[in-house]
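# nightly structure sweep
# worker-07 picked up a monomer target from the shared queue
# config: single-sequence mode, recycle default, output format = structure tokens
# input follows
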Amino acid sequence: MERLDQRDPEELRRRNMVLRRVAYIASAFAIAISSAVATALISGGDGFPRALLFVFEMKMNAAIGFGSAAIGLFALQRGLRGLSTLGALIPLFIGCWTLLEYAGVRLTIDEVFVRDWYGQSKPHPGRIAPNTAAILILLGVTVLTLSFIKNRHFRIVSAQFLPLAIVALAIEALAGHIGKSDFALSWWAPQAMSVPSGICSLLLAAGLLANGWQSETAKISHLPVWVPLAYGSVVALIDVYTPLEVNAGILYIPLVLFALWFDRAHIAILFAAISSLLILLGLLASPRGLIPIEIVLVNRSLAIGSVWLVAALVYRQHFVKRRLRQSEHHFSVAQQIAAVGSFELHFSRMELRASEAFAAMHGLGPDRIIEWSSFLRNWIPPEDRPGIEDMVSGARAGARSRDLEYSFLRPDGTVRSGLMHCDLLSTRREILQGSSASSTTPPRFVARNCNRPI
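# output follows
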């Protein structure tokens, strides 16, 4: 795994600065939306623009919960554990008590400021939707976990899976507003998640993801993170519109394939879990058709199984790549210890590409790429050039290579002797692969002639 702090500390600093800005902007917008809704509800809508009356769909408790979670995210960024804990407990309290109300426990706390909804025909007009309550619980748990738990595995679940689950629930609700799906909007409850609540959910999920990723020293992704999120949103919308006769769940398979562009293997598992959640939500939110429910369940089960099969293959691919990088690193270290280096000669450009150990042995410079003619002219003494050229020409023609003793001149003016061997790659016959071992005999010091520019 290539780590940013070892490769380029400045790049790590720039990335974390961007993530901090994302977290601050997300919390600021969520606080602004929640404050505006709370102010409008308390004022009763006097003087409120008619075009913005849809904000009254957001309940007061939802505004308090999302606003508190946003404050908790802001405090988490600032390292204020006490304030972040308070900001997490309020939405957690509101969400838990609201779900208890839906379970039949009468506590009446979910209808604070119900006077703002006087005259509505819905029962319990001040109560937030159950999916909104679930999101508030996930927000509270995420902020609390990021504040107190330092275990890496728990932080992975909290900082990545839970925000992605929030995104999935919010996307499904917003898709329900477009597709007019009762389950996607409210899980068949009288109250539905409002558009402002969905927007706040997406903002806070993005801010929590940004906060959690600040502790990562490896590169996060090789493509913009919003690309898989946008794809998942589009598929969720398609799923809400598509009848159950069509198994739209298979469209989530490419969402898992996006994990190939991430540098962490567990991202494939996270995407598979989110895809499975969206497939199950789509089963309940999609329009009913004439097909028997047993066939629908089989189709959705096959879609979930396919998603997890692809996730396992992607995880395996990441595992193999990580093992390959580790082997390459160990090989490079072994080359440096044993004074053995490798190189590739590309005949199309007559270009020498050296390993780190080969470049260190010969003093080629940091780029480790040089023209073949320049290498012969500036590093190899005239008396050794014909032997190397004959060996390369024979290997290019397919002849079996022999070990060749040669001398090379380093930039410090010392001449060392080495042993070179090269063969033509069987898979790519335009590339010659070779190795060189430096002798352990003491070097000789000579003047820097050998056609090398001073």
